[in-house]
Design goal:
This protein is mainly beta. The chain has a single domain, classed as TolB, C-terminal domain (Neuraminidase, 6 Propeller). The chain contains four helices and 29 strands. The strands form six sheets. Strands 1, 2, 3, 4, 5, 26, 27, 28 and 29 form a nine-stranded antiparallel sheet that branches. The protein is globular and about 45 Å long.
Length: 401
């Protein structure tokens, strides 16, 4: 499969897997024969995936840009009196595209870029791994299948077959359930949101209607599932998907997409992107129990993709500026002025703080195709490390991998 030839389709598919969109996914120029060949190639390793261990599944990759230290004095502005926890044994998991080998893969790496190994070939990481499992989009960009895999390389479940048009999937914190969305038709944005119990294989349709239901996210305690609705509202249902969903808040004045949400570790608050006046968006904090939303940033800005930092004390987000640059910033959950983490000289997006709060992984996009470098910012020293030079979308931290 020539991934470089179909790079625009692959990138569009990757973006759809990781971020909500207000338009249908872009289909590739991939022929059915090529798609079948790719899926056949992938399924040829199924025996290893279902029966192998982590040593068999992980092959050392020389193509990752390991250990490229690009510490830059101007980026030390992101240093501050930020609480950090005891060091965790954490690795990064991300989607890498190798243009030389025409391959896309899910990889893992140490924070300094060393020890890079492959977890899954011909696959794109959909969301944060949890409970020792992750959701992968496998196969052709035109007709992917969705699978739940263990971090050791075993196949847990094939949630969808090729042709089911999956969009996004995420596992619960205990790794026992997966919430996923799919398009009901290639010609529309109609979607279905379902929850699958991975122990029993029972599937519950949470919502199926002419709408674009996006970004489902389980609470860390597993009790709740929230998602953005096409009605511009934040919805919540029981984490099993069995009860009727309720509207938590009206968070938008139009039906454009909401870029990202994040649960606090105590499952009591949500960090949200809230749209206003069309193109503007701010970062807001939603108290689930009180059903109240408080804006943490304001003004004619485009602040998106919030995620809680260590101890739920700060929220990291992306600030998209008018000059087509982007900066990683953070703001206290108590409010006040936000501060820059990166220097704004590039297109820095998709922050992901480590569980111990000592690092922030982010992508520096180098072109218009959502492709660029995976970088890690050291919160205490201000140093920046390039981990990978061709990364798709958000990277995630996994402890004990």
């Amino acid at each position: 499969m020539n991934w470089q030839r179909f790079l625009p389709s692959v990138l569009a598919f990757a973006a759809a897997c990781s971020t909500p969109t207000s338009s249908a996914q872009t289909s590739g120029a991939d022929s059915g024969t090529q798609a079948d060949a790719l899926l056949s190639q992938d399924s040829s390793t199924a025996a290893d995936q279902t029966g192998g261990d982590s040593a068999d599944a992980a092959q050392t990759q020389p193509d990752a840009a390991a250990g490229q230290d690009t510490a830059s004095p101007q980026d030390t502005s992101g240093k501050g009196d930020i609480a950090v926890g005891p060091p965790c044994d954490c690795k990064l998991v991300f989607t890498h595209i190798d243009l030389n080998a025409n391959a896309v893969k899910i990889m893992q790496s140490m924070p300094d870029g060393t020890g890079a190994t492959t977890l899954q070939e011909n696959a794109i990481l959909s969301s944060q791994p949890a409970g020792g499992r992750y959701v992968a989009m496998v196969g052709s960009p035109k007709a992917p299948s969705m699978r739940v895999m263990t971090l050791g390389g075993q196949l847990v479940a094939q949630v969808s077959a090729a042709g089911d048009a999956p969009i996004f999937g995420t596992v619960s914190a205990d790794g026992k359930r997966v919430a996923w969305t799919r398009r009901l038709s290639d010609m529309s944005n109609d979607t279905e949101l379902a929850v699958v119990n991975l122990d029993t294989s029972k599937s519950v349709t949470v919502k199926s209607m002419p709408s674009w239901e996006t970004r489902p996210a389980f609470s860390p305690d597993g009790k709740w599932l929230v998602w953005y609705g096409a009605d511009g509202k934040l919805h919540m249902a029981d984490g099993s998907g069995n009860n009727d969903n309720v509207v938590l808040a009206d968070i938008s004045d139009d039906n454009d997409f909401r870029n990202g949400l994040s649960w606090s570790q105590d499952s009591k608050r949500l960090a949200l992107t809230v749209l206003f006046n069309g193109a503007n968006s701010n970062i807001s904090l939603f108290d689930v129990g009180a059903a109240q939303t408080v804006a943490l940033t304001s003004g004619p800005v485009r602040h998106q993709g919030p995620v809680f930092g260590y101890g739920d004390e700060v929220i990291y987000f992306t600030d998209f500026t008018a000059d087509k640059s982007a900066t990683i910033r953070r703001v206290s959950v108590q409010g006040g002025a936000s501060e820059a983490v990166t220097d704004g000289t590039g297109y820095d997006v998709l922050p992901q703080p480590s569980p111990d709060g000592r690092y922030v992984a982010y992508a520096r996009w180098t072109d218009q195709d959502n492709l660029g470098e995976l970088r890690v910012f050291n919160v205490q020293t201000g140093a920046i490390q390039v981990v990978d030079t061709n990364v798709f979308n958000r990277a995630y931290w996994v402890a004990g991998l």
